[in-house]
Amino acid sequence: MLTLGELASHIGAVLSGDATILVRRVMTLSKAGPEDVGFLSNPHYRRHLVHTRAAAVILGTADVAYCPVPTLVSENPYLAFAKATALLNPMEPAPRGIHATAVVASGAEIDASAWIGPLSVVESGVRIHAGVIVGPGCVVGAGTSIGTGTQLIANVTLCHGVQVGDRVVIHPGAVIGSDGFGLAKDGERWFKIPQVGGVIIGNDVEIGANSTVDRGTLEDTVIEEDVRIDNQVQIAHNCHIGAHTAIAGCVGIAGSARIGRRCTIAGAAGIAGHLDICDDVHITAMSMVVQPITEPGVYSSNLPAKPNRQWRRNVARFHHLDAMARRLQVVEQQLATLLKGNS
After folding, report:
1. Structural class in CATH, domain 2-88
2. Is 320 a catalytic residue?
3. Residue 63 DSSP one-character state
4. DSSP states of 318-339
5. CATH superfamily of 97-299
6. How do residues 67-112 score in pLDDT, each as one tens digit?
7. How many CB atoms lie within 10 A of CB 304?
8. Which one of the listed residues 129, 171, 237, 240 is annotated catalytic?
9. Is 215 helix (H, G, I), strand (E, B) or coil?
């Protein structure tokens, strides 16, 4: 537990209220009790503020007047909430050593402070640095390097030659360094192109459950520092993802696409291959990007859901758009001729 004074100091908030009150956890406004800290960052939930029983609430200046309990005022309430949650939920100390059921090749270099969990496999030539946690059921392929403080939560596969930076978190089921989808046509058959590149993961990256990052064909697939990848994301061979970019669930990025720094790609968006997307681009959910993007900004495509009858009418009209456009062009030309004759 922490006092409100201690909490305010750690998260950089301004406390209004009794600094000696003890708090145990962060909780939603509607569920918070006398030992909880509530938070408000979305105005949609302001209606819960006046009834909260929290010991204090993290919020912005604009909401202070509505709060009946002590306040922790922050310019960025959502960030303050995240810091408070991390502070009040410290991680358990990690074990050290190698579990009896793990299989570790004799040539692997494993720091004494690292942990290799049950039923994990570490192949030859692997280098595992200080404080690394390899959870249960993971496979660390030959020649792979894992940086300081990185965590493979469980059932993570790092294929051969993958380089993972420091403080990376990779969630269950993720596969890093599998072969890219490289094929050449040989008559009616496909000839597989060997994928001889690797994958480089920068520091402070997080990769969600069941996501995949394919190895490069000749050069490496690169994920720069502080990239955040959600669950079930596909990043194909030879892609390059710029630092501080966030990619939401079910996004698919085709081969050799280059995504800039500080971009956000919302859920289920698709990025075609061999495209360059510049820095500070924000792509909304379910958009399909098929051309390069050279200017920062927000980009959207696709259509939101409509009532079925309305959607069916619209789809029927879509099939006539070309003919309608041609007729409109003829009308415009006739109108221009008429106006010119009357002038």
Report:
1. alpha beta
2. no
3. G
4. HTTHHHHHHHHHHHHHHHHHHH
5. Hexapeptide repeat proteins (2.160.10.10)
6. 999 999 999 999 999 999 999 998 888 899 999 999 999 999 999 9
7. 6
8. 237
9. coil
Same fold? 2-88, 97-299: no
Tens of pLDDT along 122-136? 999 999 999 999 999
* 135 contacts 118 by C-beta, under 8 angstroms: no
- How far CA 278 is from CA of 69, 245, 255, 264, in Å, comes to 45, 11, 17, 11
Supply the pLDDT for residue 91.
85
As a whole number, mean pLDDT of residues 234-254 equals 98
pTM of the model: 0.90
Q: What is the dihedral of CA 151, 153, 157, 160, to 10 degrees?
A: 10
- DSSP letter for each residue of 149-184: T-EE-SS-EE-TT-EE-TT-EE-TT-EEEEPP--EE
How far is the C-alpha of 69 from the C-alpha of 102, rounded, in Å? Answer: 52
CA distance 43 to 53: 18
Quote the radius of gyration of the chain (alpha carbons, Å): 27
In the chain, where the domains are located: 2-88, 97-299, 308-342
CB 145 within 8 A of CB 168: no
Q: Return the closest-CA partner of residue 227 out of 167, 312, 304, 144.
A: 167
Nearest of 77, 2, 12, 85 to residue 45 by alpha carbon:
77
